[in-house]
TrEMBL record, chain A:
This is tRNA N6-adenosine threonylcarbamoyltransferase. Substrate binds at L140, V141, S142, G143, G144, D173, G186, E190, N283. It is found in: Cytoplasm. The gene is tsaD. Its cofactor is Fe(2+).
């Protein structure tokens, strides 16, 4: 494992402005600080993340998050070994602000700079939290992404499947909007679903009838909309029970599809462990379904704590530590990449064409 | 780059894209050519626009990062300040904006995004920015003059709030609440 590394991490690829200091050595990994400045209030009126609003906030808040992370960790830049920054994929305005701030810090402090793939940072989280050995199967399930990956090293990923349209987190947000629930939709829908009956409404299980590990959530969202509109046409509105039942049916459909596709991927990869990351992993019903999948397959199940499943900079710093040990450095010409697939050997699931695969 | 009042170096490269990749390497080349290091700098000036949002964020974020690591101030200087400082007679400072419009400001007044006709209506001559290398020099000179002033960290001058429409979808009626 070599000497102990202290890494400063920066994250600004969506709507969380984050900085963290992580120390990694033979004794394990310690998060010395992890500062996350959320932007939900800024985006609340718009029913989703507005890229220009996010970019403006990142550009003026990220250095404040860095100062706070260093202060909380009780270290100065002189004690830092390298700067790790999310260089993509994500909303380009925020990623650019992060990359440029990181370059400024690295240049002025004479420190190495490491561009980190945001998805890799999530995918390596079980190593940060549980020192999980390679290889393992990772279900990355968030507001922007849904992929099943075999993880063999800090830059070695094989994608077994992924969503061909929306990410589940997006679908949760949309369903919340359709039903007049607050954003973010995940916790709101889960809360409602707890009081609902999952079998009253029959919602589809997209792509479950097809072989392979690809997923789809767009049709499920539309099915909720249709069911809602039918109820409104009949009754002139929704009852609280209607709403709870729709949430329960939707959540059950997402959990079932994720569980079945994960079961297939686990069988295909033959990895000894299943790990989950991303904000949607916070959903208790989905978590329970995935635990059963792992148990049935005789695989270990690792679910990092929620604060490390959602966007944060500690996972970026940790990924940076692994890359640094592998000899990876970037120059001051490091580019911000809105699209940056983890497994470029696979054909694009979304966003093909001139700009290439999204993720 | 200034040493006191003396101009050590000024450079501009025209590029349609790629500023984020080029900015730091270009600054490092200038330092090397001048025989100085990052730690020799006492302050940084950064242009805050108005202008292309992405370009402004590239420069402002880099300046804030350098200020943080070097422990020196980063001082934001707007394009309007540059024009006002260089123009002695009454004028309207104008900077090209999106879709052929102009960011315009009269000294001491608030800036706005206007059409050329609106900028001209006041009957004052329009004054614009110098060419890029001279603009960078002017930013450095104004920043140097403001050292020691208590100012917030540099932030892009956007003039207009972001283009974003509030959520249009009305939530469904909840019958129990009626």
């Amino acid at each position: 494992m070599g000497e102990t590394l202290t890494i400063l991490g920066l994250e600004s690829s969506c709507d969380d402005t984050a900085a963290a200091v992580v120390r990694q050595g033979a004794a394990g990994t310690e998060i010395l600080s992890s500062v996350v400045l959320g932007q939900s209030d800024l985006h609340a009126a718009f029913g989703g993340v507005v890229p220009e609003i996010a970019a403006r906030a990142h550009a003026e808040k990220l250095d404040i998050a860095v100062r706070r992370a260093l202060e909380t960790a009780g270290v100065t830049l002189a004690r830092i070994d390298a700067i790790a920054v999310t260089a993509g994929p994500g909303l380009i305005g925020g990623v650019l602000a992060g990359v440029m701030l990181a370059k400024g810090i690295a240049a002025g402090a004479g420190l190495p700079l490491i561009g980190v793939n945001h998805l890799a940072a999530h995918a390596l989280t079980p190593r940060l939290t549980h020192a999980l050995p390679y290889p393992y199967l990772m279900l990355l399930v968030s507001g922007g992404h849904c992929q099943l990956l075999t993880v063999r090293g800090p830059e070695a990923f094989t994608r077994l499947g992924g969503t061909i349209d929306d990410a589940p987190g997006e679908a949760f947000d949309k369903v919340a909007r359709l039903l007049g629930l607050p954003q973010p939709g995940g916790p709101a829908v889960e809360r409602e679903a707890a009081a609902g009956c999952a079998t009253r409404f029959a919602l589809p299980r997209p792509l479950l009838d097809r072989p392979g590990c690809d997923l789809s959530f767009s049709g499920l969202k539309t099915a909720v909309l249709r069911q809602r509109d039918m109820l409104i046409a009949e009754q002139g509105g929704l009852t609280r029970q209607d709403r709870a039942d729709l949430c329960a049916a939707f959540q059950a459909a997402v959990a079932e599809v994720l569980a079945e596709k994960t079961r297939r991927a686990l069988a295909a990869s033959a990895a000894p462990a299943l790990a989950v990351a991303g904000g949607v992993a916070a959903n208790a019903a989905i978590r329970a379904a995935l635990e059963r999948v792992a148990e049935d397959a005789g695989a270990a199940h690792v679910a990092p704590p929620l604060r490390l499943c959602t966007d944060n900079a500690a996972i970026v710093a940790y990924a940076g530590a692994e890359l640094f040990r592998a000899g990876r450095h970037d120059g001051m010409d490091l580019a911000a990449r809105p699209r940056w697939p983890l497994d470029s050997a696979q054909p694009a699931l979304i966003g093909g064409g001139r700009k290439g695969a999204k993720a | 780059m200034l040493s006191g009042d003396r101009l050590i170096a000024a450079r501009a490269e025209e590029m349609g894209r790629g500023q984020a990749e080029r900015l730091l390497p270009m600054l490092e080349e200038m330092l090397v050519e001048a025989g100085v290091g990052w730690s020799d700098l006492d302050a940084l000036g950064v242009g805050t626009g108005p202008g292309n949002f992405t370009g402004l964020r590239i420069a402002v974020a880099a300046a804030r990062g350098l200020a943080l690591s070097l422990g020196i101030p980063a001082i934001g200087v707007s394009g309007f300040d540059v024009i006002h400082a260089a123009t002695l007679e009454p004028h309207v400072a104008v900077i090209p904006g999106p879709r052929g419009r102009l960011y315009a400001r009269r000294p001491g007044e608030a800036a706005d995004l206007v059409d050329t006709a609106e900028a001209e209506v006041q009957g004052l001559p329009l004054a614009g920015l110098p060419e890029p290398a001279a603009l960078a020099e002017a930013v450095a000179r104004l920043a140097s003059a403001r050292r020691g002033e208590d100012a917030p960290p540099p932030a892009p001058l956007y003039i207009r709030p972001p283009d974003a429409a509030p959520a249009r979808e009305a939530p469904p009626v909840i019958l129990d609440d009626a």
